[in-house]
TrEMBL record:
NCBIfam families: GGDEF. PROSITE patterns: GGDEF. Its EC number is 2.7.7.65. The lineage of its organism: Bacteria, Pseudomonadati, Pseudomonadota, Gammaproteobacteria, Oceanospirillales. This is diguanylate cyclase. It comes from Billgrantia gudaonensis. One of its GO terms (cellular component) is plasma membrane.
């Protein structure tokens, strides 16, 4: 039965991220080649078993003898391309199908070999379906819930969670790759030869001490995937774990990473929107203070804005100290305890914010023994010029596990902004600057909401809006309007052969080249996957068909050095009275299907 009695704690996550560089997990095998790919300088002791070879000293054989010359040459060729750190090829043995993944360079590489049995053939469809569910989410919490459901469905893990890193608290920081432990009870497979090898985190074995720790927690399998953009310390870990063994084949791990990245991009957009709303509420509440400066801040005016600030920061209490005065709202430690907290903050740097969500594990634990119900503290200095004149302190109560919800980067940033506002009166110039930045943020959000991140043309939502508007205009003006729906032929073959990065580059290059060949009045958007939609106002069916034929011919001639020649099939139709967006797109889609049935790289009208 796949169930655990308790949730994992931070030390368990750290244990799962640990690895033994001298051994791998038995779910795969490994070899490393020399600079000429002529000699194996390192191998796992189970290599012969995986390749259905007689037990022998594999270090005495060449890579070509073990895997075949054609496979080795194909991997070398892939790795010789610019910006191609990984290459994969399928190897069919007598008893099972294997995937060989090489990473390194054309002159030296590590080859990881894993089984490919019992895979779901529709991994792409599953990824698209989860992407649609992410797009339907309208707040970060809803998106996190759907993402955890995706992890459980894709991996089969019974438990999934997201653990965020708390800046400045010495908390867990996300790494740079997916970590998989298929079975904490499995015996590690030693490496023979030169043991300084660069294997992926999904391959390395757990050290014995960390494996015992997870087994004591009844954890048999675990995976961890970093969620962050540019700074690992500002993101978190997406974690799945089970009480039974779970091995994830490379295509499943790749799908999980793509799904998680798509969800995280959507999450960042929703977080930005939420933060802008929170920031505006913070500024609105500040205006309730009127024209009083911090030197004359009354408790009455502070309380007028304070309840909103407590809601924004999900805090139970707030304290402001400046010039020997202490003003507080909500529930907070007694003033006798406050002096000890202030001494600690001053000793730890009068210019730096400080935060923690588990005060019982910090030097402040002794000062809070009289009231241990406070578990979270975020403290930001108040400054006049270059001098620290006081502190803004926000408190959170302990939850059932003795800690408070972790402080997020947005909490820190907005607390710092509030501290700046409370340190001095806002001038008209400052207000105009804030309004301008808010407008720039809104402009950025609008662009992100309407642009496909891969192709940098209109996304599905935006092109649907344009289609609605153009068809409405046709109803009033009775001017012609045509649709061109086209699809990249055999696009899955490009992803399978050259990788998803090359596929994304093909889509971007194709979209930009197509856009350059359209009129300024035409609209181009990514309809989904490798499909694109062109809306051509004031364009007859005949003229649209001519445009489609030109584009079809020119696409076939486009240079694609990273993927080889491509082609596209076009379906063309014209608006008719009574058409709806759904009916006209369905007609274009039928025509495109007929073009594909006729041999692809063709144009059909409907």
């Amino acid at each position: 039965m796949d169930s655990l009695e308790t949730d994992l704690v931070a030390s368990d996550y750290r244990a799962a991220l640990a690895y033994d560089p001298r051994a791998i997990q038995p779910c795969g095998c490994l070899m490393a080649v020399d600079r000429q790919w002529r000699r194996i300088r390192l191998a796992s002791t189970n290599l012969a078993d995986f390749l259905d070879l007689p037990q022998a000293d594999v270090l005495s054989l060449s890579p070509h003898q073990l895997l075949g010359a054609s496979l080795i040459e194909a991997l070398q060729h892939q790795l010789s391309r610019p910006s191609t750190p990984r290459a994969s090829r399928r190897l069919t043995g007598r008893q099972r199908s294997l995937l060989v993944t090489a990473h390194g360079s054309a002159v030296t590489a590590t080859l990881e070999i894993e089984p490919l049995e019992n895979l779901d053939d529709d991994l792409t469809g599953r990824g698209v379906a989860w992407g649609r569910r992410f797009d339907a989410c309208h707040d970060p919490q809803q998106l996190e819930s759907v993402l955890l459901q995706a992890v459980q469905e894709i991996t089969g893990h019974a438990h999934a969670c997201i653990r965020y890193c708390t800046p400045g608290a010495g908390d867990l920081e996300a790494g740079t790759g997916l970590r998989m432990v298929a079975d904490t009870q499995a015996k590690p497979v030693p490496l023979i030869g030169d043991t300084t090898v660069d294997a992926s985190l999904a391959f390395h074995a757990l050290p014995d001490r960390q494996a015992r720790q997870l087994r004591r927690r009844a954890v048999r399998s675990v995976l961890a995937f970093p969620l962050h953009d540019e700074t690992p310390s500002s993101g978190g870990l997406l974690i799945g774990y089970s009480a039974i063994p779970r091995y994830l084949a490379p295509p499943v791990r790749q799908l999980l990473q793509l799904v998680a990245q798509a969800a995280w991009q959507r999450h960042q957009l929703l977080e930005e929107r939420s933060n802008l709303r929170r920031r505006q509420r913070l500024l609105d509440a500040y205006e309730c203070l009127g024209s009083e400066g911090m030197q004359h801040l009354s408790i009455r005016s502070l309380r007028e804005a304070g309840q909103t600030w407590l809601e924004i920061f999900q805090a139970c209490g707030m304290l402001l100290t400046q010039g020997g005065q202490i003003n507080g709202i909500g529930t907070h430690p007694e003033k006798s305890t406050l002096s000890d907290i202030l001494r600690f903050l001053d000793a730890n740097g009068r210019r730096r914010p400080w935060s923690h969500h588990d005060l019982a594990s910090t030097p402040l634990a002794g000062e809070l023994t009289a009231d241990p119900s406070f578990a979270g503290l975020l403290a930001v200095p108040l400054r006049t010029g270059n001098d620290t004149t006081g502190w803004l302190m926000l408190f959170r109560r302990a939850t059932a596990n003795g800690t408070s919800p972790p402080w997020q980067p947005a909490d820190l940033h907005q607390a710092q902004e509030l501290a700046r506002l409370l340190s001095a009166d806002m001038t008209l110039c400052q207000a105009r600057q804030l309004a301008k930045r808010l407008q720039e943020h809104n402009t950025t959000l609008a662009r992100l909401a309407h642009t496909d991140p891969v192709t940098q043309v209109a996304n599905r939502h935006r092109i649907e809006q344009v289609l609605d508007a153009e068809l409405l205009a046709c109803e009033h003006s009775h001017e012609p309007c045509s649709l061109l729906l086209f699809d990249v032929d055999h696009f899955k073959r490009i992803n399978d052969t050259h990788g998803h990065d090359a596929g994304d580059r093909v889509l971007y290059h194709l979209a930009q080249e197509t856009l350059a060949r359209l009129r300024t009045s035409d609209h181009l958007g990514r309809w989904g996957g490798e499909e694109f939609l062109i809306i051509a106002p004031n364009c007859t069916l005949h003229a649209a068909a001519d445009l489609a034929r030109r584009l079809c011919d020119e696409i076939a001639e486009l240079p694609m050095p990273f993927a080889g020649p491509i082609s596209a099939s076009f379906g063309v139709t014209q608006w008719s009275a009574g058409d709806t967006p759904k009916s006209i797109v369905r007609r274009a889609d039928l025509a495109m299907y007929q073009a594909k049935q006729a041999g692809r790289s063709r144009v059909r009208t409907a």
